[in-house]
Design brief:
The complex is a heterodimer of chains A (441) and B (293).
Chain A: H1 2-14, E1 19-21, E2 29-35, H2 42-61, E3 70-76, H3 81-91, H4 108-121, E4 125-126, E5 144-145, H5 151-166, E6 176-182, H6 185-188, H7 191-201, E7 204-210, H8 218-227, E8 231-235, H9 240-250, E9 258-260, H10 267-270, E10 281-284, H11 293-303, H12 319-342, H13 349-357, E11 360-361, H14 363-369, E12 378-379, E13 390-396, E14 401-403, E15 408-409, H15 412-430, H16 437-440
Parallel strand pairs in A: 2-3, 4-5, 6-7, 6-8, 8-9, 9-10
Antiparallel strand pairs in A: 1-3, 10-13, 11-12, 13-14, 13-15
Helix pairs in contact in A: 2-11, 2-12, 3-4, 12-13
Chain B: H1 2-32, H2 39-55, H3 60-83, H4 91-113, E1 128-131, E2 134-137, H5 138-160, H6 162-172, H7 174-179, H8 184-210, H9 220-230, H10 235-256, H11 268-279
Antiparallel strand pairs in B: 1-2
Helix pairs in contact in B: 1-5, 1-8, 1-9, 1-10, 2-3, 2-4, 2-8, 3-8, 5-6, 6-8, 9-10, 9-11
Classes of the chains: A alpha/beta (441), B mainly alpha (293).
Chain lengths: 441, 293
């Protein structure tokens, strides 16, 4: 495994910044992948794009999407915005006659930088579980899709869970909640909505910033210990997460009162903290594990045949990998739905966008896909580009994540006016006339 | 008051961790006048190599030995392939070479061992220790002890051995050292090898604290203000600078942070370093450059 990993990694390093092309042909549907396999965030990138690519291979092994084979190529971004934009420009036109379906950069920075370009190029920009919260409003952001969970839904669901633990949302009054957030636009995205929720439910909120990258948090945790909060919401990223857990242990704060957000929920976030992470709770939209039928299918038809994308097969079924698989399912389903309207052929980005806006995954469809429990039921529309807004809670036992809750829904009715206020402000600034979604429905 | 001392002591102990990285810079700067930007990458490479060997079933001390050998080999390679051809060129050229080296080592480390994040347990408990009503980290106390042992070891090397004497001669006056027959290249190779060893020790302690991952190479950012304050040429200065930076940033975050929105501990040490530059450009223990004009 070492030899294989080294050779493939070396080949990757040599081809850094270049596009790794698979064989393309007309008649195929193309996915441009702005991936990152080296650099500080490579652990997330290799897992996510590994799962995404393996799912595309699995679909091809089963005949493609109504006979249309899927193809893709990667362009290394290293999570750097300029490189992400360069990759976007290089790949957006498709390859050898295979049109691009959608971009999936898995990076808030790259997503922001390519948002206007995506609209101009009529190419869907998929920001699963992240991105601009107000891009949920498809009337203003026709080509952006923060699928499953936007940042506001994320914190709303966490507060609802804390309310459940307290015996009801009315019991939140008087509780103390600290949010420890990454000192970046991503980290600060939810501060205002948390204040709104604190006002509504009457809990005391403290917002504590950790400067990037977050490898030193002693003073923040000493302050937290002094405040004695009931819960700490960890809105971290990368190294900030294990350091938070280790420092919490150092000051004697219990891990089972810390709730990680969607980017603090992977094995890479908990395992490096060792024993300090035991009991740590985090949300997820995509449980880890290999028992789901779709994962078993990928194992049999891709991984066991030596065609899996992961350099380290032990990562099969981990949180990042499964997020990649879920992302693959949603992209492919959008193509499949769009084909029902536009024909069983390779589609343009504009046509695939229609597929996303009409994406409907109910329990029956998820069961047919072998993804029930792995993906939440989703229904998107012209005005709602998120579709789900629910999370499950998982707890780290020192070795792996275990689910400890069913789906907990965000208060989307409360959030919608806040989202629309922001999107309409954006529309006014940019001179955008919002679409009339009532007519499109 | 108890809380104040807890913050202060926690900061001093964190500062020792910064000093560990800063010592690697000092060694190379002292011997060759090169600011080795690749020190952070060496910390990452050492930790990644060590933990990857451990995960493949290699026993702890054998993994340590193999990693140490690898770091020495890397040091010799750098001396032969990068520094020797650039000898006599300006310091900025050598600095740029180490900058390039940094990216090469980071890329090579990930290509060789993969991008996965690894946990590293050194067997040191991090359960807090209650002393006089204050909670102290056992791990940080262990790190402080390790740093003290490292400084003692380096002091022995530089003061009690022939190679140490040669090194001090080179540091004082390279031309005079050359004139009396000291081989500059050999000294550079030894110093880079020792810096590799320091990188390994720092990598293990930082790796145990952060997890072994790419961001280990970013710990150099914490070492820069330490060096400015302590001086680029003094190991004692690196320790003193580390203690000052660690204590100052923690106290600033806790007591000044709330007035400016928090999150100030990344840039506050640089403010302190700027002030030191204005008042004492060579740092607390650095050698003042005196030139006849």
């Amino acid at each position: 495994m070492f030899k294989r990993s080294f050779v493939s990694s070396l080949a990757l390093a040599i081809s850094l910044g270049t596009t790794a092309l698979t064989a393309h042909a007309e008649g195929e549907q193309y996915f441009p992948l702005q991936s990152y396999r080296v650099g500080p965030y490579a652990a997330g990138g290799t897992g996510f794009f590994g799962g995404f690519i393996d799912y595309l291979k699995y679909v091809n092994a089963n005949g493609g999407v109504n006979g249309v084979k899927l193809t893709w190529s990667e362009c290394e971004t290293e999570y750097v915005v300029e490189k992400g934009v360069e990759c976007y420009e290089r790949l957006k036109g498709g390859v050898n006659g295979a049109p691009a379906a959608a971009t999936n950069p898995l990076s808030v920075g790259i997503a922001y930088a390519t948002l206007d370009r995506s609209t101009a190029d009529k190419l869907p920009l998929i920001t699963i579980n992240h991105g601009r919260t107000d891009s949920t409003d498809g009337s203003v952001f026709p080509y952006a899709f923060p699928l499953q969970l936007n940042p506001y839904s994320e914190v709303s669901a966490i507060i609802n869970y804390i309310g459940q633990q307290a015996g009801g949302l009315d019991k939140l009054k008087g509780q103390k909640i600290v949010t420890l957030y990454h000192g970046s636009p991503y980290g600060k995205e939810t501060n205002e909505v948390l204040k709104t929720l604190a006002d509504k439910y009457g809990f005391a909120l403290s917002l504590v910033e950790v400067p990037h990258p977050g490898n030193e948090q002693q003073s923040q945790w000493l302050n937290i210990r002094r405040d004695k909060p009931d819960w700490v919401i960890l809105r971290g990223w990368g190294v900030m997460n294990p350091v938070a857990l280790k420092t919490a242990q150092k000051v004697g704060f219990p891990a089972n009162r810390i709730i990680g957000n969607i980017w603090s929920n992977s094995e890479e976030d908990a395992a490096p903290a060792g024993a300090a992470a035991k009991g740590f709770i985090a949300i997820t939209t995509h449980p880890s594990g290999t028992a789901f039928p779709v994962l078993q299918g990928i194992k049999q038809e891709v991984v066991d045949k030596g065609q899996g994308d992961l350099a380290d097969p032990k990562r099969f079924g981990t949180v990042y990998y499964n997020l990649g698989v879920v992302n693959g399912i949603l992209n492919v389903e959008a193509v499949r739905i769009a084909q029902e309207k536009f024909g069983k052929q390779p589609l343009t980005g504009e046509q695939v966008r229609w597929g996303f806006e009409n994406l409907k995954l109910d329990d029956a469809r998820l069961a047919a896909l072998g993804a029930k429990g792995l993906v939440q039921p989703l229904k998107l529309s012209c005005s709602d580009h998120e579709g789900g807004g629910a999370v499950r809670f998982q707890q780290w036992d020192g070795e792996k994540w275990n689910l400890i809750s069913d789906w907990v829904q965000a208060d989307r009715a409360l959030l919608r006016p806040i989202i629309e206020a922001s999107s309409h402000k954006y529309a006014a600034e940019k001179g955008i006339t919002p679409r009339d979604c009532a007519k499109e429905a | 008051m108890e809380f104040f001392f807890e913050v202060l002591i926690g900061g001093l102990l964190a500062g020792v961790m910064y000093s560990l990285v800063a010592i690697g810079f000092v060694l190379i700067y002292k011997a060759s006048g090169v600011f080795n930007f690749a020190q952070g990458a060496m910390v990452l490479f050492a930790a990644l190599t060590f933990v990857s060997l451990l995960e493949r079933g290699v026993p702890f001390w054998l993994a340590f030995l193999i990693t140490l050998t690898t770091m020495v080999a890397l040091a010799l390679l750098i001396e032969r392939a990068v520094l020797r051809p650039l000898v006599n060129l300006s310091p900025i050229t050598l600095f740029m070479a180490t900058l390039g080296l940094s990216y090469m080592i980071e890329g090579f480390a990930q290509a060789l061992w993969g991008a996965q994040v690894h946990g590293l347990e050194l067997g040191i408990s991090d359960e807090p220790l209650e002393v006089g009503g204050m909670l102290l980290s056992q791990f940080d106390l262990f790190a402080a002890g390790t740093a003290a042992a490292l400084v003692a070891l380096l002091a022995l090397l530089f003061n009690k051995t022939r190679i140490g004497l040669s090194l001090r001669a080179v540091a004082d006056d390279p031309l005079a050292a050359l004139a009396v027959g000291i081989r500059l290249q050999r000294i550079w190779a030894v110093v880079w090898a020792v810096a590799g060893f320091v990188g390994l020790v720092a990598g293990l302690l930082w790796g145990a604290r952060l997890g072994v991952q790419f961001s280990l190479s970013l710990v150099v950012l914490k070492a820069l203000p330490v060096l400015i304050i302590g001086g680029f040429t003094s190991i004692g200065g690196a320790i003193a600078g580390g203690l000052i930076v660690g204590a100052a940033e923690k106290l600033a975050e806790v007591y000044l942070g709330p007035f400016v929105g928090g999150g100030i501990e990344n840039w506050f040490p640089y403010v302190l370093a700027m002030l030191f530059l204005l008042v004492r450009p060579a740092g607390l223990f650095g050698e003042r450059a005196i030139e006849r004009v």
